[in-house]
Amino acid sequence: MIFGKKKNKDSSNIAMMDSKVNQNYVEEKVTKIKDEDVEVVMENEEGISEKLSNASPLRKYAELGKIMFAMLKDVKKGNYPNVPWFTIASIVVALLYVFNPFDLVPDFIPGIGYIDDLAVLSISMGWIETDLHKYLDWRLAENEKA
Question: Which residues contact 131 (CB under 8 A, 6 or more apart)?
Fold first, then answer.
């Protein structure tokens, strides 16, 4: 019982350190996103969507991925212009990270291969959740007009 408690305490410390490392990693990548990176995401929409749908740990993000792609398309077309660059960059970083098979923890490792993908997606979602809700509200309003 003593060993179990110590193990849990150490695990939570590792998880907190890992979360901070991932958050710093994501922040650094978001600040370096360029317009060309948005194009790369758009060109790879099918592959990214497929990975989100087929990797069981990432399935819960499949619908969010669709919303993110729709938002990027509407921004690119000029239909939805008032989006902070930070939001666009966060979406691009999250989706490119998921698409990249050579990330911090390779996806082919059973059981833990998607932990880093989940962390990057979760961190990004935490930052842009409000903007995604605004976008969905806008889409509902647009659909009601049509």
Answer: 83, 84, 87
Sign of the Cα torsion 48, 52, 58, 64 reads positive
Which two structure tokens, joined as six digits, stand for 141?
A: 């309003």
Q: How far apart are the first and last CA of the chain?
A: 63
* Largest interatomic CA distance in the chain: 63
Q: How many domains does the chain have?
A: 1
The pTM of the full predicted model, rounded to 2 decimals, is: 0.77
Supply the range of the domain harboring residue 101. Answer: 2-145
Predicted confidence at residue 9, as pLDDT, reads: 38
Confidence class for position 2, pLDDT limits 50, 70, 90 = very low
**Looking up tokens 């966060």, which residue turns up?**
90
Which distant-in-sequence residues (6+ apart) come within 8 Å of 127 by Cβ?
Answer: 86, 87, 90
Task: Count CA atoms within 13 Å of residue 128 on its CB side.
Answer: 30
List Cα–Cα distances, 111 to 58, 114, 135, in angstroms: 12, 8, 34
Q: What is the pLDDT of residues 30-78, one digit of tens each?
A: 888 999 999 999 999 999 999 899 888 888 889 999 999 999 999 999 9
